[in-house]
């Protein structure tokens, strides 16, 4: 009898463990114990090009760090499943049986217009790999839809009362706003068996799109995006799935930038929920965390992805499911690129796939005699060795095995790389040695934003030109500047001692105009003057842009000058207040036809040097040239051999330009501070390389006649200097 009871108890516990749950707890009546799931599947699309409007998959072990599967290529052909040739906004759900998966997507190609689609695609799978699909055209299937303009962002949830799968989505009819509707799918999940009904009724009848429902504590929480003034993510809550949603009228996104495509999932370890959304004007995702679905904090610093998703969703999965996905779409190359060890410059890891050689650049001071790359290990992946290794003695061989695939061996090298000097994406650097603090500062454009759309400036400090500390945002256009809110580009700065007190004058580009802000310290806070300093073309100029300021003080006269321009180079003397130009001093100084932008002036041994960037910052051939003059506003003489820095094919360094120059105080020792494409991915990114740049420093040297020696761009960079 005892054995029978034990057997019955065991069977009962086994049955309990098999009970199903929905995606991230979305809508199922019962739930599997959280320990069943140990990984996460992220499904997403990547952009508005037709090739980008397709379903892609990524994996994570912890819900924070994701790696794209299939080299970030589609896992399902849009042409085979859609009526338009493209799909967007994928949502994935685990069925109530725990083993069937449902996915719904917008059937749409954005190039055809934002009001061009009338359909969605329903997909069904039992293994996450093979999917059956059906197109559902709302306008064709249901009467009374003649003025339907679009069908967007469908999602699925299991209705335990109806024992059916409910699909909810937004539709726009004629001049009405977008509204969220719902309908039930048929048993086969190949079509809709009920006429769409409105699910949420906005109190102000405003537009609502991108609905996402999650069940918590017996209540359905509907996240959605509002449209129009003050657009963002809000939430409505109901005790019932299909009615009674009451708006909680506050915005939940933790950014001032436009957002869409919210997705909520519950962490497998029970430590709360993730709300993520697409910051679509910035080309990035933001992750936030909450315990109560009311208060959210940004956790972007804990998140990593080797891809740029657009509007997607995350599904908790088992180790067995993750292993099947890795077996199908994982690669040994990607496993090696997943290194996350402390001290790594992660965005600069480079893999030679032909020779199976991985190069791991590390920050200064990293202990390479006992360094562990810490590769990300998904189920089904084994990498050996797994302990710290001595990389000072040379390359280490690593063996990678993926379930169902032949083992592969890689040669791994780890070495210090001082370039890029700053961690992350930055460009257009200016550099300053501040007498007040005895430190060096770099003032760059904040990069990595699609179309150069950054809106804030930061600064970084160092005592040795190698170890740089992020000093944070020093000027935020939306918050600190009244006359411009966009395109924060190419700043420059100068230190002046006025009446015994140090002042810092910071010239910056905003909305293709040049402003000036003032501070008492090199790290701010900076106060904008309240109006642009330069907002129009100089006399005689009709084309180009008023951007890229450079400020210079003549050591012979102590007069200060400002230079600027894209397509032309202008210069003018600054008044002693440093926030206005001296009337009648503006001159056009364009040296020759190679001038594009990024003028920079400095003085050495009686000669005034001027540098500028040639070509386009999106071009691999972006480079720096120079000329000389006998005065700050004198005619610039261009030497025959005047190339300062250009691409280095041997090192795969491209797009070297928009520079500044630093002289070590009291010494004839000089450095070139410039930006380049991100290494190694930039050269593969097309035009996007032009806004995914990084700041580097290399030695600048002169010949005995004062001419500049060409600078060879390097990954190694410079050695730390000691001012004492």
UniProtKB/TrEMBL annotation:
InterPro entries: Glyco_hydro_43 (IPR006710), Glyco_hydro_beta-prop_sf (IPR023296), Glycosyl_Hydrlase_43_Enz (IPR052176)
Annotated site residues (Important for catalytic activity, responsible for pKa modulation of the active site Glu and correct orientation of both the proton donor and substrate) in this chain: 548
Superkingdom classification of source: Bacteria
An MF annotation (GO) of this entry: hydrolase activity, hydrolyzing O-glycosyl compounds
A single BP term in Gene Ontology: xylan catabolic process
Residues of the signal peptide: 1-17
The keyword Signal is annotated on this UniProt entry: yes
Pfam family, one: Glyco_hydro_43
Keywords: Carbohydrate metabolism, Glycosidase, Hydrolase, Polysaccharide degradation, Signal, Xylan degradation
UniProt keyword annotation of Signal present: yes
Gene3D superfamilies the record matches: 2.60.40.2340, Glycosyl hydrolase domain, family 43
Recorded family membership: Belongs to the glycosyl hydrolase 43 family.
Database matches in PANTHER family: ENDO-1,4-BETA-XYLANASE (PTHR43772), PUTATIVE (AFU_ORTHOLOGUE AFUA_2G04480)-RELATED (PTHR43772:SF2)
Protein name, per record: Family 43 glycosylhydrolase
Organism: Adhaeribacter rhizoryzae
Biological classification of the source: Bacteria, Pseudomonadati, Bacteroidota, Cytophagia, Cytophagales
